[in-house]
Design a protein that fits this description.
Layout: H1 8-33, H2 36-46, H3 52-69, H4 87-94
């Protein structure tokens, strides 16, 4: 019955799936830089809770990933620090004791 015209729609779908992937990669890069995986593993294995500042930072990064993924078109400077939370600010917000561990 109905058939989509090849070309424009296919390119649009490729762009939509590619851009959120870039945002996700940037978010995961920032989490790796903060060494979140080590604290998550320590919490699972040893039961030592992750510092509050790291939990807060992770939630903020996940929120930015979700918010930027909804934008159309994706800002060309999505990797800019202006869009992403600062790990140093998370440390200050909860105090230095939140980062020990």
């Amino acid at each position: 019955m109905f058939r989509a015209i090849a070309g424009g729609r296919q390119k649009e779908q490729e762009r939509v799936t590619e851009e959120p992937c870039k945002i996700l990669q940037e978010g995961h890069r920032r989490l790796r830089k903060a060494d979140i995986q080590r604290y998550e593993a320590r919490e699972r294995v040893a039961g030592i809770p992750m510092p509050l500042s790291l939990k807060h930072y992770k939630v903020q990064v996940e929120y930015v990933i979700a918010a930027l993924s909804k934008l159309d078109p994706l800002p060309p400077d999505y990797m800019s620090d202006g869009y992403w939370p600062s790990f140093e600010n998370a440390d200050r917000q909860f105090g230095r004791e939140g980062m020990k561990g």
